[in-house]
Amino acid sequence: MGRTVPTYREALDGLLTRWEREFGHSLADPRDREAFHEVVLAARRYIPQGTMMTSGDLVERVLLSLLVDLQRKLRAPDPGPFESEIDAFGNLR
Amino acid sequence: MPRGWLLDVTSSRAGDSVLLWLKEMQGMVHRVEVPYAPPFYVTGEPDRLHALGEALDGRRDVASVAETAIQSSPFEAPDVRHAALAVTPQSHGRRRSLATEIDALGACVTFRLFDVDLTASQLYYLEHDLYPCAPVSWSGQHVVALEPPETWDYVLPPFRTSELAVEVVGQRPGRPPRSTDPIARVRIGTASVEGVDETATLAAVVEELRAQAPDVLWTRGGDTFDVPHLYHRALVAGFTEEEFVLGREPMPFGLDRAGSTFVSYGRIYHRSPSFALAGRFHIDLDERFVEDVTMVGFLDVARFSRLGLQTVARQSPGTAFSAMEVATARAQGVHIPWKKNLPECPKSAALLIAADRGGFTLTPPVGLFEGVDEFDFVSLYPSIMVHHNLSLETLECPCCPDSPHVAPGLGYRSCTIRDGLVPRTLRPILERRLYFKRRKRETTGAERTRYEDLAKAWKWVLVTSFGYQGYRNAKFGRIECHEAINAYAREILADLATTAQREGWTVLHGIVDSVWLKPPADADPEAFARRISAQGHLPLGYEGRYRWIVFLPDKAYGLGVAQRYYGLYEDGEFKVRGIELRRGDTCGMVRGVQERVLKVLSQVRSAAEFQRAIPEALALGHAAAAELAQGGWSREELVLTHGLSHRLEEYRTFSPGVAALRQLKEHGITREPGEEVGFLLADRRSQDWRRRAVAAELMTGSESYDAAAYIELLARSFETLFSPFGYTLERVARTWGHDVQSTTPPRAFDRHSLERPGQRRLTVP
Amino acid sequence: MSETESWLGEIPEIPFVGGEAAPPSILLPRVCLRPASTLARAEPDRLFPVRPSIFHWLETRFAPGTATRLVGPSDLVPGFLTFLLAAVASGERTVTLRDGANRCAPYSIATLGRRWGAPAEELLGRIRLARAFTAHQMVTLIETWADDEIAEAVPADLWVASDPAALFAEEDVLPYERAALVPHLARLLDRLVRSVHRPLLLIEGASEIEFPWASEGLPVREVLRLERRPEGGVLLRAERARDALELVALAPYQHHMEEYDPDPVRGGVVRWDGPSLPTARR
Fold first, then answer.
1. Model pLDDT, residue C207
2. Among A72, B19, B117, B237, which one is least packed by beta carbons within 10 Å?
3. What is the tens place of the pLDDT at every residue in B81-101?
């Protein structure tokens, strides 16, 4: 029974695919494309939090995700306990 | 009065009595026949019922018809009765067809039928306060259980067990048996039965079974091959069903049975037809729904479900749980509806979005983390069902509009007056499992293993009890209950994360009923767990501390993903999810190498040591790759398995699995959706179904395999483990001196920064 | 798909059935280009908002006390249903839906509503639904429909029965049940539509079960049929009125629409832009 409404993750996939196809695809400058990719990553990074919201409007949840992500990037960095002890280059923290 | 155990209750062939199989203390098994004809019930308008009664009266296939009144719904007060007809079919076998006839007579709307799909044995157990393998004393047909089924610790019946294995003429690796193959010999326990010809062999089988008198015949594939093949060859040799008996009572050979395919939670399952025996248990280890449950576990579950051991060992835990709900309902006096029709209550589309959600997930950051504590709620979902009284008849009841039990975000309220049917079924199970877990901690050796087996068996029943609420055909399911359970669970996890953070813990990962937290200095995890348990009335268990744990990224974006990690507990045990080791489609070679890598990593105590261990692990892989390249790796270990979702003809794309299916078809073997196909990859480039792969059943052990393909698979398994530290498939393969063309796009790793390889490091979170 | 599978070759999975994530992609209209403030509220006797003009065309296909059948291929009907639900709810009308094909797509409905300026929560709040997952549940839903609706504070303007017979195609439904209960459903709906005196939208086609609307005398006002045209585009036919609309996809970057001329013209055309409904796997 159930499973009528797609998960936020699945619905977001659809939304982001459309954004990529209609908006991202037509970006010429590679830096714009990179920035757009960051937007996509930001939206995906907060999927768990988006799932806890129940608004019918997906864009509301995506906007919040992007705003929080931007705020993090603007502030002074403090990775703290959320950063891996060995980074993506194989170096110790 | 003799004492012993009631092994089983089976339907007699005539169908108007049951056979009680009683095993004496000394070991002899007695067959006691008891006339037993349980009715099913029909409700409807009294005048229609009366007319129906008159129509049925005197029919040959109807033993009796009686007017009565029954409780037909758990929603109604216990004193509410409905006019009903008690219809007793002439034989147990006619029950369903007679019920169907009555249903059709009423055009499916005039009459409601009850207790139709309960078996005679199940009803016998329920009516006489008996249960499978109960310790009993008896006098003639009067059998009395000496202890209730809920007894914590009991003595198991002393079963005589023998393995049964059939070997056909010409059987060898690479040549699967066919129905035309005569039987060469049959192994029964330690005896190997072989006659001058097949007929003699078959006769000797019957004799040997009589001599050994096993109570349990266990097989590996007995339902799919050994038993039906024995029956088939017996038929060919001219034996009758009365002459060729594998149990203690003649059974129909039943060779016209088909298996079935069904879908559950998006996965396809295939069930083979079952060849149970009468008076003796045939347990096919390959047909166990859940692989790691043992006899001890099945026996305990059988007690509560009132389903025979052979049924419990084959059916899903959900079937057992449903039978337990039936037992609870019958104890309350409520009869079991045949065609369940309780639909969803109307909700707005807005509420649907809120309600149709699963569990809470908090995706982890990617990488290695030291000193992480894991906490798991003990049977969270069943505990929620019990604590918040979630049952079909106690949700949104009209009597408790101000109930304090409100499903978060949904508003469904639970009754505070009546104890629901589902919680009443679950509570003893939860207590039982907790008892077994406690005893497991307190004991050692064989006793400890026994408690572990018991706890494991019940874990599966508890897990499915939640899913059953949402199952469309569940007798006592209701979708709002399913939604409410999820809502409470999400809230509980989210609250736990908030509380933990407030107390200084770092919440790394959370999923459904578990959380991974990094403790603040001088934290006491046990005390934390106890406090949370007390506050929320739901037991939170402290699983242990990881020396280190690696959370793995998703393939597409490099972001953290739930249920993919590997970590080493302080006690030296690993916990592993989502990597090749745990996956059903990987070959033994990859699993074996990954196990060895983990063995290397089991010595690692810190991030620094981990970093130093990576090259050693890679060297291990390199050696394995070199050995693979030489072409001599054991073919058994290179068998890959795919689950099937279609029949061979329905596949439109060519793949090694399809090639294997085609080869099997050549040999007269078909695989159904829900089953698996195993194969060796011979040449991944070939488009020829004969050359792309070799079906596992047809392997001789000396065919050549596509070494490059397997090296790539191996490299992938290393990428799985070490990608958070910069090891892509290409890098791993290059380290081993191989060139690999990856078809997946390059990955971005989870970093808030704009770091790229080669750039100077920015210190951003 | 597991990693191994994706590397070794495609083994197709079972097609997803139900919900919003049904492949292949479904056309959704992006019809209204006018801002919210000009979306005229439906007049008391109208079901749909006044503009855009596809609604004008659709308005005449429905009438209280009658049924309107919607038929078509399974990749077009769900999208169109979504469109109809969103349209009716955007015009501040209320819908009651009994769903036998697991087709309610709240996110898609809300997306459409946002383009038409209707806030998601209000819009979704105007759609009441109850789902059936077995044939017997569906029977109960139709039997209790009228009683459930009486208890509601806001009466529904449009009643939608989404494929009431579809669940009877399931394996576990026996032939005698199908034979008895499908006509029973049709009789119930007939009685319902006459007694509640609201328009009923009856959707068919999710399974091969034929709904016996004719033999049970259901008062059918119109049959809306969706068809794919070989040259591309979709045709929306109103069979009884012998009228049709061509639904044509807008080219990328094209901003203007040729609107349907409200004067009755044979083979009138509405250009609509249909971005595909994204597919997702379960």
1. 85
2. A72
3. 999 999 999 999 999 999 999
> Which range of residues forms the domain containing residue A45?
8-72
Residue B398 corresponds to which amino acid? P
* C-beta atoms of B657 and C139 within 8 A: no
Which residue, B268, B747, B705, B685, is CA-closest to C9? B685
Pick the last residue of a domain from B574, B589, B619. B574
pLDDT of residue B499: 95
Q: Helices (H), strands (E): how many in chain C?
A: 7, 9
Residue A56 to residue C106, Cβ atoms within 8 A:
yes
ipTM above 0.95, yes or no: no
Chain C residue numbers with beta carbons less than 8 Å from the beta carbon of B342 are 137, 140
Residue indicated by tokens 């001219």: B238
How many whole angstroms separate alpha carbon B275 and alpha carbon B222?
Answer: 8
B370 burial via Cβ count (<10 Å: 0-12, 13-18, 19+): middle
H-type helices in B191-282, by residue range? 198-212, 227-237
- Pick left, alpha or beta for residue B142 (phi over 0 → left; psi -120 to 50 → alpha; otherwise beta): beta
Q: What is the per-residue pLDDT across A10-66, written as a single tens digit (0 to 9) for each?
A: 999 988 988 988 899 889 999 999 999 999 999 999 999 999 999 999 999 999 999
Q: What is the pTM of this model?
A: 0.88
Q: Which one has a higher pLDDT value, B705 or C277? A: B705
The SS3 of residue A39 is helix
Within a domain: residue A90?
A: no
Instruction: Flag whether pLDDT at B168 surpasses 80.
Output: yes
Is A18 in contact with C121 (Cβ distance < 8 A)? no
Cβ(B155)–Cβ(B135) below 8 Å? yes
Closest C-alpha to C267, from C249, C248, C247, C243: C243
Which chains neighbour B (Cβ–Cβ under 8 Å, 3 or more pairs)? A, C
Same domain, B493 and B511: yes
**Single-letter code of the amino acid located at B528:** F
Q: Which chain B residues are within 8 Å of C133, Cβ to Cβ?
A: 343, 472, 479
Length of chain A as a residue count: 93
> Looking at the 3D structure of chain B, how many domains does it have?
5
How far is Cα C257 from Cα B730, in angstroms, rounded to an integer?
A: 51
Give, in degrees to the nearest 5, the angle at Cα B524 between B521 and B528: 120
List the one residue out of B557, B581, B563 whose CA is nearest residue B516. Answer: B563
Given a contact cutoff of 8 angstroms between Cβ atoms, the answer to whether C264 and C59 are in contact is no
Where is the domain boundary, B677, B704, B731?
Answer: B704
The CATH architecture one would assign to domain C48-225 is: 3-Layer(aba) Sandwich (3.40)
